[in-house]
Write a structure and sequence with these properties.
Layout lengths: L8 H17 L10 H35 L9 H24 L1 H7 L24 H9 L4 H16 L11 H6 L3 H7 L17 H6 L22 H18 L3 H9 L6 H5 L1
Helix pairs in contact: 2-5, 3-4, 3-6, 4-10, 10-11
């Protein structure tokens, strides 16, 4: 089964080229723009994620189908209310998934790939993880609700297409009601910031209302510094994909107690026994 998002890849690549050319002909000193090595790395990570993701999707479909079969009811795809439920349930699942991947180090080791660029442009959207297996548990409840698996996969693709357009500095703030309800480039720039006030904020996918309800919303204010609090200084796709797993393994091996080993895996990024003992 080929994910619907695959069909959008040519358009994504074309739009990356268009945005890169816009910086050449309409430069802006306040915006980072593109850097060739960074862009190549992002595109390589995106290509690798699709190669890894295709066989994983087969497993995910089987898991969703099993959960759907166990559901006491099956919702009809011909009902508009099924699609309404799917939209909100998928977006909430994404918020929970995204927040967990910032607060649990073993999950962060997968997601950190997407935050590893010190630039913010449409190519950054393509910088995706090569370990997609951490996503499955967050969407299984949708199948248990009786939503057909193909609908779940389709809505996931719609969400990812929407989020592609959030990765740009070329768009400022939008009409206030839009900014209040929906995730926008302004909100997502905050999410990619390494500024202290921007850390672990604005997890939303299509909607920003979950962040407002969950008290994780932060409006764009001070200039955003993109990247990690400690950048990895590499364009090597293999290191980008697995550097945090390697770092976590080093910490686990050096830990003296099982409690500390567990803390290095399920604690938040930056967790340490010393920090806990203060």
């Amino acid at each position: 089964m080929i994910p619907a998002i695959v069909y959008a890849i040519p358009a994504f690549v074309l739009l990356v080229v268009v945005e890169a050319l816009s910086y050449r002909f309409l430069p802006d000193d306040d915006e980072q723009g593109y850097e060739l090595r960074d862009t190549v790395t992002s595109m390589s990570m995106g290509a690798g994620s699709q190669v890894v993701g295709l066989p994983w999707k087969v497993f995910a479909v089987v898991a969703y189908a099993g959960a759907y079969a166990l559901s006491p009811w099956q919702l009809s795809p011909s009902s508009v209310w099924t699609w309404v439920l799917l939209f909100f349930a998928d977006d909430l699942a994404y918020y929970v998934f995204h927040r967990a991947h910032h607060r649990v180090r073993l999950l962060w080791a997968s997601h950190v790939v997407h935050h590893s660029s010190v630039r913010f442009n449409l190519s950054t959207a393509l910088r995706q993880s090569w370990t997609p297996m951490t996503t499955l548990p967050f969407w299984l409840p949708l199948a248990l609700l009786g939503i057909p698996p193909w609908m779940i996969l389709l809505q996931q693709s719609f969400s990812l297409v929407y989020q592609f357009f959030l990765h740009t500095e070329r768009v400022g703030t939008l009409w206030r009601p839009v900014e209040f309800v929906f995730n926008t480039p302004s909100h997502h720039r905050v999410h990619h910031g390494s500024n202290n006030r921007y850390l672990d904020r604005n997890y939303g996918g299509i909607l920003i209302v979950w962040d407002r309800l969950g008290r994780t919303f932060e409006p764009e204010g001070e200039r955003v510094v993109y990247g990690l609090t400690k950048n990895i200084e590499t364009y090597n796709p293999l290191r980008v994909a697995f550097h945090e797993y390697a770092a976590a393994w080093r910490d686990v091996r050096a830990a003296r107690t099982w409690r500390d080993r567990a803390g290095h895996l399920v604690g938040p990024p930056g967790w340490s026994p010393k920090a806990q003992s203060r």
